[in-house]
Amino acid sequence: MTALVLMRFAVDPSRIAAFEDLAAAVVERARSSPGLLWADLSRAADDPPSFLLLCEWRTGADADAFAASSDLEAFDPLLRGEITSRRFLSGG
Prior knowledge:
By secondary structure, the chain is an alpha+beta fold. It has helices spanning 16-30, 60-67; strands at residues 2-10, 36-43, 50-57, 84-90.
């Protein structure tokens, strides 16, 4: 069963360039994480300073390991609020 994880980052508009640089580095590290099948980062259409990170993981445990990493904490100074996340399970 794979886990599809959608994370929303509400970025401080004055920190977008810093967020994009950090996000590129985090996504690159995530691509070498055990269990990551693919990842895509894009701007949210309904709130342009926000970004969406969509990842598919081999297992929920792989997604949990990434979510618990210090990589996500590095975003805190660049955001207007908390990172929101949704998880969807697929397969059987």
